[in-house]
Amino acid sequence: MNFPNELKYTKDHEWARIEGDVATVGITEFAQKELGDIVYVEVETLGETLTKDAVFGTVEAVKTVSDLFLPLSGEIIAFNDALESKPELVNTDPYGAGWMVKVKFDNSAEINQLLDSQAYKELTSV
Question: What is the pLDDT along the chain (126 residues), one digit of tens a residue?
Fold first, then answer.
């Protein structure tokens, strides 16, 4: 499985790409494989400020619905509108076109609480 080194990860299987004070967030390749075919992504928190680990949306697969947890505290400033018509992008390109939200984070110290790719790889290989 692919876990890009430049990303940070959560134990709940979200990833974050940090660029300045904005993090692009999605779910990992591991998570999308566990869920199966993604049929719907719902994010109703656009414009809201949430705390780290708060639920920012849900992802629906053929067999289940899972909550999405925010890796960093901050304001949800963008939603990937492409997922409304093509939720399968989460399956085909989880680290690229399948991103879910962008968050303007307000506490950079929280980045240190996230996992690097090696630690996440160890978490998923248990």
Answer: 889 999 999 999 999 999 999 999 999 999 999 999 999 999 999 999 999 999 999 999 998 999 999 999 999 999 999 999 999 999 999 999 999 999 999 999 999 999 999 999 999 986
With CA atoms as reference, report the closest residue to 5 among 114, 116, 125: 116
Distance CA 98, CA 122 (A): 24
Rounded distance between C-alpha atoms, residue 75 and residue 125, angstroms: 32
Q: Which domains does the chain have, with CATH numbers?
A: 8-107 (2.40.50.100)
Chain position carrying tokens 């928190």: 45
For 43-100, give the DSSP string. Answer: ---TT-EE-TT-EEEEEEESS-EEEEE-SS-EEEEEE-THHHH-TTHHHH-TTTTT--
| Residue 9: Cβ within 10 Å count | 24
